[in-house]
DNA sequence: ATCGTCGTGTGAATCGATTCAACGGGCGTG
DNA sequence: CACGCCCGTTGAATCGATTCACACGACGAT
């Protein structure tokens, strides 16, 4: 393997000069620079980032830890983050916590070992334990899709309470009085907030918590949705509408209802969350709460970059909590009007 | 930041001993080991992988470069690869080439800089140029979803010619005589192979290439499918069936046909490719060619691990080309029988 | 003639963990 | 008692790139 010393020998200069050609080309004479550059090309030299990072103290990679890349919502978040990082010449290492606090802790430990420059994190652990542990390493991080507890970190989130209020208000306005909430793992903040918003909308309509049957699931995917729908069909007094904590669940619910011959939206209305691309292409196009996923990723990336820049310039950094607003997209899955 | 020297001082031992506790705990006395371990815990020491890798020569990360993580097919491949890597204690860095040869080259350069332990690669460049360039670095790699040109590398792929033959044979058997092929970027091997298979099935049915109208697209996503469907509807002599190079395209086609009031499958049958989870949940459940995506990822990971193990033991490694077989899943989007 | 400055280059110290030759002490054996 | 051996530990060399104090020559100003 070719190292910087080989290049230096080939070009007839010192290793310091080769390093300068790579990192501050303006400091070296044109003629010398050309000689070094062609030596690099001829030998096929690739610099070793480990040596570099050992010296400079940190790497040029940021870590992104999301709940599940199987959810197109997070794919969009990742796309946004990657774009922001790219513009600053940083690489992104994407990992899945699979909504598990222990996997989250494992990946955060990996990031710490790697001395990543910063982290974008969608916490799986609502207690904040793993995040608190991670803070000790002193690696800058930004929370994504979750508001920080204090103001000790930046965060970008979408108002989940507002989003679910929109969704459920839409249902109560159509006359629904008895709803189901297909939720998800209770330890996720998003799941809790979306319940809060749903209850708020019910209260507006003069309804109490008894109007909302919660159907929790272990995961947030299509299979869990199918499973929840089976439970839904078995309920003694069947609700007339289902609010799902995300679109994957909603698609699963839709599939099972369809197979059971339940007409959507006539017999059962469905609202999803996230408005992933597949929601519009579903058997019955899904009404859903749209979240600005890519924008969230980009913004989170930018906040992190700001913090890094401040750190490098020795300036003070004020943490910011950005909250974006969701938007209800009405489609066929809720279009029927309820009788009474 | 805490370094190994701090731990050594705290535990009252030399740095060599601390390193031994971390890497070969059996060589150190129980009492000493415990002292070092608690020093590590108390100080919150995290070892610096850059220093480690500088010394040992390579990292414990493998690179995975896929065409598009927006395609659930590749998410499944990644899941499989990650699992295989995890079992061997390796991390995975996932990147998207976005089907672009230049982005592919960029990410491969990043992997080379990082001295990743190995690479799993779905090439975007059918010419094999970027792959050939990458070979120079001497980093082991395995091709995924693509058979290698020679036998100079391992590969895991699914027989695309067989898969598309299945798909199109299914259509001709149902009486279709005039088909469209919504393809994709011509520089992808998969796209070419799937055309070859389609033409083979047509030939079996006594039909020539004129029976297949190709509608190429620039990308392989839902939006491109919508766009292709618009062109499809504008054709002078409208085909009765569409074969799409993947499910994302098929979902886009379905959406546009639906909006235009074209009945699927009565007026137009659709076959997709990949059998992603969303294909079954579509407006009209899609007939699709199922590929063993997760298995492909796992297998590719295992082949790479085998190669790495051989390298470490100084053994000879024989490259293998594994070809998996796809399977046709028939659903409603092709269920109508053609008249003549 | 002297001094300062500028533009280029050099070479050694440095980052943190790993590894290995060497060492010391305890024990058993001849 | 002397010797060899094993166990556990030490300390220094090493990996490759970066960085910085310094050197060197040329040139201009005084």
TrEMBL record, chains A, B:
Membrane-crossing segments per the record: none
InterPro entries reported in the protein's UniProt record: HTH_LacI (IPR000843), LacI/GalR-like_sensor (IPR046335), Lambda_DNA-bd_dom_sf (IPR010982), Peripla_BP_I (IPR028082)
Residue ranges the record marks as coiled coil: none
SMART domains to which the protein is assigned, alphabetical: HTH_LACI (SM00354)
Alphabetical keyword list: DNA-binding, Transcription, Transcription regulation
Keyword Repeat: no
SUPFAM superfamilies: lambda repressor-like DNA-binding domains, Periplasmic binding protein-like I
Example GO molecular function: DNA binding
Domain HTH lacI-type residues, every copy: 2-56
Keyword DNA-binding: yes
PANTHER family listed in its UniProt record: HTH-TYPE TRANSCRIPTIONAL REGULATOR GALS (PTHR30146:SF109), LACI-RELATED TRANSCRIPTIONAL REPRESSOR (PTHR30146)
Name this protein carries in UniProt: LacI family DNA-binding transcriptional regulator
Organism of origin: Catenulispora subtropica
């Amino acid at each position: 393997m070719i190292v910087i010393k080989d290049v230096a020998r080939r070009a007839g200069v010192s290793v310091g000069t080769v390093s300068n050609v790579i990192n501050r080309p303006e400091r070296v004479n044109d003629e010398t620079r050309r000689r070094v550059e062609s030596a690099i090309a001829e030998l096929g030299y690739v610099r070793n980032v480990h040596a570099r990072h050992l010296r400079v103290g940190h790497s040029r990679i940021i870590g992104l830890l999301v709940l599940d890349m199987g959810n197109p919502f997070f794919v969009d978040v990742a796309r946004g983050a990657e774009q922001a990082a790219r513009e600053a010449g940083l690489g992104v290492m994407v990992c899945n916590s699979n909504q598990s606090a222990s996997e989250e802790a494992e990946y955060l430990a990996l990031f710490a070992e790697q001395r990543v420059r910063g982290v974008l994190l969608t916490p799986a652990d609502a207690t904040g334990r793993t995040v608190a542990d991670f803070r000790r390493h002193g690696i800058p991080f930004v929370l994504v899709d979750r508001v920080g507890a204090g103001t000790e970190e930046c965060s970008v989130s979408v108002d989940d309470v507002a989003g679910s209020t929109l969704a459920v208000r839409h249902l109560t306005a159509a006359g629904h009085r008895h709803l189901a909430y297909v939720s998800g793992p209770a330890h996720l903040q998003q799941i809790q907030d979306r319940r809060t918003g749903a209850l708020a909308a019910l209260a507006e309509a003069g309804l109490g918590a008894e109007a909302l049957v919660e159907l929790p699931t272990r995961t947030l995917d299509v299979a869990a949705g199918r499973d929840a729908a089976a439970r839904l069909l078995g309920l003694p007094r069947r609700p007339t509408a289902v609010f799902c904590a995300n679109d994957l669940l909603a698609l699963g619910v839709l599939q099972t209802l369809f197979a059971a011959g339940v007409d959507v939206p006539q017999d059962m209305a469905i609202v999803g969350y996230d408005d992933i691309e597949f929601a519009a292409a579903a058997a019955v196009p899904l009404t859903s709460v749209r979240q600005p996923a890519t924008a969230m990723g980009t913004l989170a990336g930018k906040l992190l970059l700001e913090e890094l820049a401040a750190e490098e310039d020795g300036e003070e950094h004020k943490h910011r909590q950005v909250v974006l607003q969701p938007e209800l997209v009405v489609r066929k899955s809720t279009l029927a009007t309820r009788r009474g």
